[in-house]
Amino acid sequence: MLLAIDAGNTNIVFALVDGGTIKARWRIATDPRRTADQYAVWLHQLLELEGYPKDAVEAVIIGTVVPRALHNLEVLATKYFHSDPLIAGQGKAAWPIALDVDEPENVGADRALNVIAAHSKYPGDLIVIDFGTATTFDVVDASGAYKGGIIAPGINLSLDALVSAAAKLPRIAIEAPKDNLSVVGRTTQSQMLIGIYWGYVAMLEGLTERMKRELGKPATVASVAMIGDRTIALATLSGDLLISTDAGQSFHRAQIKAPMKYAGIARAGANDVVVVGLQGIRIETIK
């Protein structure tokens, strides 16, 4: 089986893949100081808990946006799994798509992998939204070429910066405001929640709409990851929005009677789709 490693700025995700199917997935906080030996102790225990021997891993591939973490992950692969790892974007795992931007060498592995995954499943022009430490928007044309995008602060990062810089502001949980129809808060906490929650929704809707206008043609909007290690609850959104959950349920806004939690969000127009969740990209068409 293949051990796929996704090293992000907040978490490193390890997935055991067999024939294209994810058999198990584990997550650990990113720490560039963590050694290969520490990874091995942790990972071998998890493999055992899932009923897999460590020699079930026959190959390793690593995608990372944290250069300092790469060495120890490579040592993990060679020392404990006796495999020379493939590095996404390098050598035999070079990008199979065109990076049609001014500085292709600076495109992050996470962005390129999102583009490849989205294009491999769905034809046409795409806008791919990834909710991580940063929230990224990537444009993919019908040929699969990466055309550029946007990098914005992630919702958790925005909240952390606000609380860290303002001494009297408390840390709050990210959730749907109790009064979804009002954007005028009457307490400090409600004002913060409105700013974070509705400000983030407005950013997503506004930037997506601007990108679609600039493209000048229909584009599928796809959200392919969680908002960091949390989810955000959304109950009051545009009526043309279709939301899909990892459980396979789909709702139009009119069907949502109470706050519900989703892995990702994006605004959809009459001919657009929204794809949500970490279980692989899934499409739901608005009828």
Q: What does it look like?
A:
This protein has 287 residues and is of the alpha/beta class. It folds into two domains: 2-93, ATPase, nucleotide binding domain (Nucleotidyltransferase, domain 5, 2-Layer Sandwich); 104-262, Nucleotidyltransferase, domain 5. 28% of the residues lie in helices and 24% in strands. It has a five-stranded mixed beta sheet with strand order 3-2-1-4-5, with helices on both faces. Helix 2 links the parallel strand 4 (59-64) and strand 5. Helix 1 (36-49) crosses helix 2 (67-80). The chain is globular and about 60 Å long. The two termini are 39 Å apart. Residues 225-287 have low confidence and may be disordered.
